[in-house]
Write a structure and sequence with these properties.
Layout: H1 8-22, E1 26-33, E2 36-41, H2 46-57
Antiparallel strand pairs: 1-2
Length: 84
Amino acid sequence: MGMMTTNQATVTRIEETVAARSNSAFLSGTQPQADTLHFKIEKRAMRAVVEGLVNELHARFLISVGTDTPTFIPTTTSTIPRIS
């Protein structure tokens, strides 16, 4: 397999989409490898950014962390009812 090349126009479109969708929640962005972009975005904007990448740019391979909002967090005092 050959080495990946970077299409700078595509990188720019991705960066613009992330910036537009994240508003003031964009923290930083880097390109550690030719085929990899890393963005740090505040949690509150993560869903909007991912939706923009998928819907507007047809992105397929995304990894995001910290996007779930649990509705129940068990504590040490929580009890689970026994089913007889």
